[in-house]
Amino acid sequence: MRGLLFRRDFALVWTASLISATGDWVLLIGLPIYVYQLTGSTLATSAMFVAELVPQIVLGTVAGVFVDRWDRRLTMVAANGVLALVLLPLALVRSADEVWIVYVVAFTESLVTRFLRPAEAAMLPRIVAREDLVAANSLGSFSSNTSRLVGPTLGGILAGVYGLGAVAAFDSLTFALAAALVLFVRASGVPDRVDLDAASAAARRFAAFGREWRDGLGLVARSQVVRVLFVLAALSSLGEGSMGVLFVVWINKVIGGTALEYGWFMTAQAVGGLLGGIALAPMLRGRSPRRVLGVASILFGLLDAALFASPLFRPEIAVGLFIIAIVGITTVAFGAGFNTLIQTSVEDRYRGRVFGAIFATMALLRLASTLIAGVLGGIFSPVPLLIAMQSGSYVLLGIVALALLPRDAERRERLATAATA
User: Fold this and answer.
1) In this model, does residue 366 exceed pLDDT 90?
2) Burial tier of 379 (Cβ tally within 10 Å: 0-12, 13-18, 19+)
3) Could you give the percent of the chain with pLDDT greater than 90?
4) Rounded CA gap, 51 and 62, in Å?
5) Nearest alpha carbon to residue 59 among 280, 411, 385, 361
6) Which end of the chain is more exposed for a tag (fewer CB within 10 A), N or C?
7) CB count in 10 Å sphere of residue 396
């Protein structure tokens, strides 16, 4: 792990991502709290989440086309810089009549992020050797869990004590720092092209946009690996959407908990993710991403099932906290394997479109799963629903990954790694 963090370009991008993700969590927690305090309306609060979700569903694949046209490094710099400015109008929100500003900012922030996240993911193979990609992605999970551990608490304090202006100022500062760090990255972010001159000229013509968009989506039909990855993304989203709704019900009805206990579980999972990011980075170096993803997903699902059923056998909350911490470790391996498979299976010139399309697919299915879980949660007990929808999705995901992802891709990966060693 230390070896990767001492590589200049990776350290800059990793630190920038850690800083901006912390700001994201501050905003994610602080914004709905403040909106609810101003309006007293759950409908007004949920509308903010809808404003964030719409760009993910509608514009994910479209943004990916531009990511594959533009210099990814400069895209990251520009997106972080725009986000630093976009958040500032939140300081003007003082009453319920001004909540519309929150919706506009939330929509715009989500829109710009559609360019930032695919650019980050597509840039990683430019700054890390192929054999280090799994470890690098696990370090990305480490930074994500660090921000998840710090950001929510900080967001609640800033929103509750100092108001939305402080939340906006802090998040704006994190994006400005992230932009400054990425600006010093030396690696080129210009996407590869088969015919540089012709492709560059075509990229400047707006008429080429539709062709490039269809070409990126056509990769799904041409590549078995990409098709399977979309199926895996769908299964993951179906599980996570149901988890978002039903886990709150599980906390309340099964263990008799409140928001305090909910926070404990989220913190325990984040701690597990931190430990996993530290421990797994050196262990996963050079490992087959297919096997990492498949095994981690099955363990993820089985551990979740044990968590949901644990109060029926051992009602002590400490048991559940221990299990979810182990779940946090498996999420690191899962994310590392999944991202590495995309990065090593998709040509550089397509990566932005593929990441964008997968993010859009995940957002759409997460929304559908959330609605389904909301309906079923009023009819059935949360324990069997969580085991069937969340745990079952991840176990099935792991089986599909091991069964359908081609093993010859692993052999090609080993040969490519040996050739570059």
Assistant:
1) no
2) exposed
3) 21
4) 18
5) 361
6) C
7) 18
Q: Which of 89-98, 189-198, 237-246, 269-278 has the lowest mean pLDDT?
A: 189-198
pLDDT tens column, 146-169: 777 777 667 767 766 777 788 888
Q: How far is CA 113 from CA 12, 109, 247, 357, in A?
A: 19, 6, 27, 14
CA 281 to chain centre: 18
Token code pair at residue 265: 């579980």
